[in-house]
Amino acid sequence: MATILNQITEFIPWLHPKDQLSIPDDLRIENAGIKFDTTRHVLDAIWLKAIEQEGGASYEGYRVIRLLHLVYIPLDVRRDAGLLQKMRTALRGMYGSGINLVYLAAGIFDPPIGIVQCYGVSAFHTSLEEAERKSRLDLAVLHSTLAGAYRQARLEPLTIEIADWVFRSLQEMPHAIVTVGHPDPRENARGGDQSLRDPLAGSANAPQQYALQQNELLFRGMSTLREEFLMMVLANHVSLKSITTMLAAQAENTSVYASRQMGVRLASFGVSLPAILTGGLSENASNSYGVNHATGVSEGQGSTEGVTNSEGQAHTIGHASTRGWSHSVGETETDTIGQATTTGISETNGTAQTHGVTATEGSSHTESSGMATTHTDSSGYGVNGGVGGSIAPAGVGLSANLGGSANWGNSDGVTASNGSADTTSHAVSVSNAATESHSETHSQAQTNSQSHSVAHSESWTTSGAETDSVADTASTAVSKSHSDSVSTTRSQSESTGIGQAIGRGWTGGMSVGVAPSFSLSNSYQWQEDPYILLTHIMRTQQKLLDIASKEGAYYTDVYALARSEAGAQSLIGLIPEAFHGIEDVVTGVQARNLNPAEKAYIGLHARAFTPSTRVESIPEVMSGYVDSTLLTMLQLAAYTAPGMYEHGTALTVQEETPSFAFYPNLPGDVTLGHQWSSETGELTKALLNITPDRHFHTAFVGDTGFGKSIAAERMALETTRQWHYRSIVLDFGQGWRKALNWPGMDGHVDIRQLYPGGQRALRWNILQVPKRIDAGRYRSMVAELFANAGRMGPRQLGFIRRALTEMYRNAGVLTGDPFVQSEIWQLTDPVTKRTQSMPNPWANVMDAGEKATIEQYWAEYGMTNTIMVGERIANLDPIGLQALAVHRSRRLSMVTLVQKLHQYKEALPKNDQSSHTSLEGVLLRLEQFAEGQMARQYGAGDDALAVEDIGLLGEPDDPWGITVIEGGSEMDEYPKAALLSLLSSILYFDAVARRREALDGYRRFPTMQIFFEEANKVLTGVSGGAASDQGSGDNSNAVSHIFQTMWRDGRKYGVFLHLLAQTVNELPSGILSSCANLFVFQTKDPKDRDLILPHLGRSEKGLVNTEYKRYLARIPKTLAIAKFGYSDDVHLLEPILMRPLMVVCDEPSDREIFRKLGTQPRI
Fold it and tell me: What are 168-177's pLDDT values in tens digits?
């Protein structure tokens, strides 16, 4: 028994740690170096030249190590029970590629970085270049397998700071620990799951769940103590051939011990004496004779003729269409100063002569013969007997038996062989060579150079090809064949046979038997528990080897370095706590302390990232090395699985990015950005393109500074340049002026400024009626939009509209009004209440200026009508009435409007406080239009610009381009909101009228799109403080219907409206839902997110799609969720995560704007 126990102890080497093992001199480092990526300031590779010895052989070469560290793994992995299984699959992939894995876990607390988890590869080769190449390929495999297993996980090269700490720690940390044994991934599971059982007390045999935390225990313990450490796992690939050899040997050894686990002891005695004799005699004789004769004759003749005709004809038509577009921007600046002087003289003489003659003769003769004769005689006999007895109650019996047998035989054999061989050879070779060479070289060069070059290039290329092909093919074939054949066959056979056989045999036999029996026996079954225990251990090893033979395994070295003795002792305790277990392990995890010599040995191997080669001298063990353990993929995963530990460089508390659609082949010649893959968590090169049929009203929404303008600028540039759109940008500030330097837009960009004193101030008479908008409608539009811009109430709107009506009537602008067309006015004095009659001066064409204006309008519409001064305006057609209204409205100004409002205020009863307050609010806003430079810029005059024509740039037959209207910071928000909202309405309704004219074939107008920067302020107005009328904060006023109509019907008239807004919930009702296309940037307001989610096709309520709602609040800068909802294919309606392409160009100064566009007279 003691012998068996000693065998078990010897079988498990870790049970005798006091044995002293020799330390081999197996590693010598001759040179080493580090390579950094200077462009990104990160670690590229570690290399060293070393001589390694193992198994009596020496290996000299280069080892290259490349490392990546974990920077992000989604929060979802923390709750994933398949964490270890995913690492197991990744390790299978690495094993299939033959990778040697390196895993580092570093605790860095000075500087305060925390836990750093690194994954890398180690490659060895005799050539440094080949080792670098192989390590680069291996690292790509490692990166791809980890990315495939852990969705959206991010690995990046080590920073210089972390790399420096690792290298210094390998050199300076004095305390080294070696960990051996099999980790158990099924223990230390986290949570209150009642299915977890005590493997010692539980009776069930089911395995436990996989762990949710293992290395986290180690990280947390060392972080609490702030003890710096470096844990290194070196996993070296073991071939399947070696694993299967080990498995076969293990199975053979296990069977030996398994056969000794139990048996039966039995004692018996018996005697038997049988005898048998048989005999017989027989004779036989036979004779046979036969003759056979046969003769046969056959003849044959055949003739064959064949004719084949075939005809073929093919007709092929092909058409191919190719379109291509490319954009490249390059900028180069080079300074070079160089001086070189070279002088050289070289002379070489050489002579060589060689002569050789070789002759070879050879012959051989070989003979062999052999003969063998064999003869065998055999005989055998046997006698057996037994006796026994039994007594029933005690299990005792008595029996006796006797028996015997005999046999004999003989055989003879003869073998003969002969062989002979002859060989002759002859060879003669002659060689002769003579060589002479002479060379002489003189060189001298002196070079001085200095250069400076700056180059900027930008190219836009559009290519197209149309290919048509037609092919006609005709073929004709004629073939003829003729064959003749003649055959004759004769056969004759004859045979004679004689046979004779004589046989004789003799047999005889006799049998005699005496079989008395008596037996006595007593048996019992025995078991050897030490052998049972030993067999269980060996079968566990065999099971692990069987798993390894199917998926592979790694020889694994686990080293741990600590800066202090307290840290080393903590590691000795924490490593078993984190990784020790009892399921499917032969030897539990053991952290071994080392003596000084062993520490130096392990430290050297750790610095070289090279495994130990100390060989285990005890036979029949699973591992052949002292410091290494053969681990299956799942066991290695327990060491190397990503630790969900937040105190470090890896971000582990952020959930993964939700899933978004990915369309790699979107058609279109307008490119808006690159698509982002939610599978890899990276930006791709797949372009986000759009075609005109999917273009629609677009909303760019999100918090300030996250990229709304970037996406809008790209859309404005591409659609304007590619599709020749007429684009208007209502810029609340002045961030869009860079459009002047956009590529491909020369001659198609204009910039105008709302604020007084601008280089290109917008000279605009606000009260001048646009060319294609009825005067009465325009009067109402001005009143409503100016009231909306200041969030005025109905009373204030009424004052403005009343004042405008009186101004337009008194100036004869309302040319379609019967009051203006009547020849006599009946006026009532407001004081005396008396009615007076007076002639209406506006009922007729007053002067030559009005006559010329009317005839000019007619001429523009292809009409040759004429009119006389003094003719009644009631006889004019609508075109003439509109021309007259535009002409007469030039004399009106905001100064007159403000004066009339002051008159209203003065005429109000003193006790009408509410009207006084309302008028004060109106005047507070409008007075700034009647003061200083603004009164001149937006007042009466013949030099005012017809704003409905802005944006029509370039050739008259193909007008297109982009016009930026800058609000600037020099104006208050109210006048900017009022002017921009009025301008957008004029442009929209003018475009509607232009489309109607285009249907008559009068003129073609380009598609128009308007970009509303700060759309919240333009559409809903700005706060006017305490001067607002009651109810002025109500956004449901009538003006909202104007913008709703624009967004609802704009597409029908070739007008697309794009808004840029920060607060979605403040947009007028129905505006966002009219935007089929959407770009969503980070937005944190809960109300905004509730409005955006339904637009994306996600639920804003309940427990579903909550990940999208949370993601809206953390979308990274410059990333956006894009949805193009205008399509008849439901598969194209899913939202896409993308990054808009920034239009890279300089923002022009006022001087550059003046240089390129000229200037307007200062106002």
Answer: 999 999 999 9
| Integer CA distances (angstroms), 148 to 87, 88, 154, 718, in order | 10, 12, 11, 36
User: 3-state DSSP helix/strand/coil percent for the chain, to nearest 5?
Assistant: 30, 35, 30
CB–CB of 548/630 below 8 Å?
A: yes
pLDDT of res. 112: 94
**What one-character-per-residue DSSP string does 317-341 give?**
EEEEEEEEEEEEEEEEEEEEEEEEE
> Helix H segments across 45-127?
83-96
φ, ψ of residue 346 in degrees (nearest 5): -140, 135
| pLDDT tens column, 120-137 | 999 999 999 999 999 999
Residue 280's SS3 state is strand
Which residues, listed in sequence order, are joined to residue 413 by a DSSP beta bridge? 374
The answer to whether 386 and 269 are in contact (CB under 8 A) is: yes
First to last CA, the chain: 114
The full 3-state SS of 1033-1088, as one line of letters, equals CCCCCCHHHHHHHHHHHHHHHCEEEEEEECCHHHCCCCCHHHCCEEEECCCCCHHH
* Three-state secondary structure call for residue 418: strand
CB 701 within 8 A of CB 1061: yes
Please name the residues in contact with 777: beta carbons below 8 A apart, sequence gap of 6 or more. Answer: 989
Q: Are 1122 and 1132 in contact (CB under 8 A)?
A: no
**Cα Rg, the chain, nearest whole Å:** 51
10 Å CB burial of residue 716 (0-12, 13-18, 19+) is buried
Distance of alpha carbon 930 from alpha carbon 484, whole angstroms: 120
Can you give the pLDDT at residue 587?
85
Number of DSSP helices (H) and strands (E) in the chain, helices first = 25, 28
Q: What is the distance between the alpha carbons of residues 698 and 693, in angstroms, rounded to a whole number?
A: 14
Helices 775-789 & 1039-1049, crossing angle to 10 degrees? 110
**The two structure tokens encoding residue 276:** 């048998």
Statement: residue 332 has pLDDT above 60: no
Q: Which residues of 109-129 are buried (b: 16+ CB within 10 A; e: fewer)?
A: beeebbbbbbbbbbbbbeebe
Angle between helices 775-789 and 973-999 (to 10 degrees): 150
What is the C-alpha separation between 199 and 206, in angstroms, rounded?
A: 9
Q: What is the DSSP string of 939-997?
A: S--TT---GGGTT--S-TTS--EEEEEE--SSS-HHHHHHHHHHHHHHHHHHHHHHHHH
pLDDT of residue 1041: 81
Instruction: In whole angstroms, give the CA distance from residue 1058 to residue 874.
Output: 42
CB-count exposure of residue 1037 (10 Å: 0-12, 13-18, 19+): buried
Q: What is the maximum alpha-carbon separation in the chain?
A: 174
Query: Cα dihedral sign for 152, 158, 162, 165?
Result: positive
Crossing angle of helices 565-579 and 215-225, in 10° steps, is 160
- Residue 1103's identity, in one-letter code, is L
Integer Cα distance of 683 and 685 in angstroms:
7
Alpha-carbon separation of residue 778 from 596, 622, 775, 861, 1114 (angstroms): 96, 94, 5, 22, 45
- Output the six-digit token pair for 171: 């050199």
How far, CA to CA in Å, does 1025 sit from each of 919, 1022, 1031? 14, 9, 13
Which of 596, 553, 701, 649 lies closest to 1061 in space, CA to CA? 701
Tokens encoding 545: 């080897």
Position 1002 scores a pLDDT of 64
Distance CA 1083, CA 1113 (A): 5
For residue 283, name the pLDDT band (cuts at 50, 70, 90): low
For residue 830, cis peptide bond before it (omega within 30 degrees of 0): no
